[in-house]
Amino acid sequence: MTDEAPNDDWFDNPAPPPRSLDPAMTRPEAAEAPTPKPKGKVTPLRPLDQLGAELDSAPVTAEPPAGGGAPPPPPPTTPPPAAPGGRPSSDRPTGEVWKGCPVKPLGVNGASYYFLDVLHQMQEVGKLEAQTILKLFGNRINSLCWHFPQYDKDGGRKPGRFDQTRAAMDMYAAGAERGLFSPDGAIRGVGAWVDDDGQLIYHTGDTLLVGTDSRSPDTHQGRIYPAYPAIPHPAPADKGADPAPAILEAFSTWAWARREIDPMICLGMVGCQMMGGALAWRPTFWNTGSRSSGKSTFQTLLKNLHGRAGLIQSSDTTKSGITSRIGHSSLPVAVDELEPGEDGQGKEKAIIDLARIASSGGEWMRGSATQKGASGNVYSTFFFSSILIPGAMTAADRSRLIVLSLEALPDGATAPSLRADTWRARGAALKRLLIDRWPTWGRRLDLWREALTLRKLANRDVDNYATVLAMADMAQSAHMPSAEVLAGWADKVVRNVSASIEDVGSDADDVLTHLLSQTFDPFRRGERHTVAAWLKAAAHRPRAGHRLFGQAQDDYSAGLPDSTVLADYAKRANASLASIGLRVFGTPEAPMLFVATAKMQGLLDLFQRSSWAHGAWTQSLKRVKGAAPSAASKYLDGQQTKGTVIPFTAMPGLMAFDGDDAVTAPRPADTSMEDTY
User: Fold this and answer.
1) What is the pLDDT of residues 123-150, one digit of tens each?
2) Is 484 helix (H, G, I), strand (E, B) or coil?
3) What is the 3-state secondary structure of 417-473?
4) Whether CATH 3.40.50 fits 244-367+374-406+421-504
5) What are the beta bridge partners of residue 333?
6) Can you give the residue ranges of every domain in the chain?
7) Is the pTM of this model over 0.85?
8) Are 541 and 642 in contact (CB under 8 A)?
9) What is the pLDDT of residues 570-594, one digit of tens each?
């Protein structure tokens, strides 16, 4: 024996007793629960761990008997308890992250989710990562951490930390509950708007004025009014003097070509600029005049009236530059020095096209970096100024235009004071008057439209001038105009704009002007004559054939009757015209022009790079007064085609003689021109 103490450690963990290999000798025994190790300090389980432990220790439900019998009782339906300080999932309202959450889901579009963030700005989100969620909640991160807490190992909240997974799950779910969403046409930025009930909504960027109420930017009747940097607010109600007389007096200091009406038109124009998005129709305004006529000074006055950020103003811009600055707003646009390009088809044409779309709130389309495309409706009122108005305008462009022509200022003329703060205050006061008087707008506009319609103005001119005069009238008075006021101003407008109305023309006039002024040289002699000259020769106009066929024809026809010479000229001219898809028929007293519908190369060449290219000429020619589709096909240069028949009476210049002395054309022996071809 030794004095060493015996090693009894094996008693602490004895080996299990041997088990028999004979199944008959084996019987079930209750398993002994392991003895837990003693711990010096017990850490309380976290809520989720505690719940897991309770589920693990729950008794296992026996399988139902093979022969049937009652099924086991269903599991309890009581939702699990909320985490300390949290809220049960059932407490989340549909379409919200939590009740009263400052971040509001708008909906889903493909892989993008849209939210109004804590500052009421619209945000497009692809993936709700932690940093993205933090940006959405901004200065309300504490609320985010409270509703989606993270816990430390002792079960306490981690300060300034949130559970990104739980937050993203609820935000995705709330966005999906809002449904599909497209920002196109749903977003309304700063400026004036109307809701579905005709009520004015003025969005200043940081405030939404809905009728007499003022609220934070939000949703209204299915439209989204996100927050933006603020634009000048209207003046407080019932504050300050009436601004209209001072504004009208300042406008009267310029030397307008139509002194009787243009200052009033300018006052109405400013009102249209302020209320642009709320109007059904917005005329386009063009200020033109020579150098030193005050165009730039007028632009400065407009800028001061609207205040900083209240007017999109530029002297060197493009269509894409303007649309990017407009965004979803209805702010007015003022473009200075928009002079014609060298080819008449430069950047100014694209900007003019945008102004035409804006007149009725039409939609523009452009591409985007994501290849998804972007679109929006343009509700801005456009104002241009230049020495020359570009000739690239179509009849549709001109019909929307109100031209404000300036004459040279007399020597010693004094410009009005342009102190910015003074005019900014007057502009804010004018904006307040227009907002307060908006409920009268519909009835007021109807009265002015009726007064101008009675004066037989064209529909588009009624749209333009009724809108401007009604706006100027609303700026000056809260009451409806009297019959005397309506009649007086309607007469002034008709008297002053009749000349400019004649200059507008139409699409039919434009296509005829284009066709008749084109040149071609069928004989390859380097002598290019206009289509009009060839048509006059084909219609038996005296001296027209001499211009085309020269001295050789005169020597050939010497001694022949005039009627024979004219008939020969007409036959040769028509043969040349047929090669480009044209033909003259009828009688010398009533000639008719036939223009082929088929896309013959000659016609394609005449109309290339024009609005009537690729066969579109037929559509516009049918609008000419007296024009009609041909009843039968004709053969032109070996090709059978139908066409449009236009009487020469619709083209009066073709019936005139070359030269100043008009004489009666001799009557050919054969009165029918049809047999000569």
Assistant:
1) 999 999 999 999 999 999 999 999 999 9
2) helix
3) CCCHHHHHHHHHHHHHHHHHCHHHHHHHHHHHHHHHHCCCCCHHHHHHHHHHHHHHH
4) yes
5) 312, 382
6) 89-178, 244-367+374-406+421-504, 508-676
7) no
8) no
9) 888 888 899 999 999 988 888 999 9
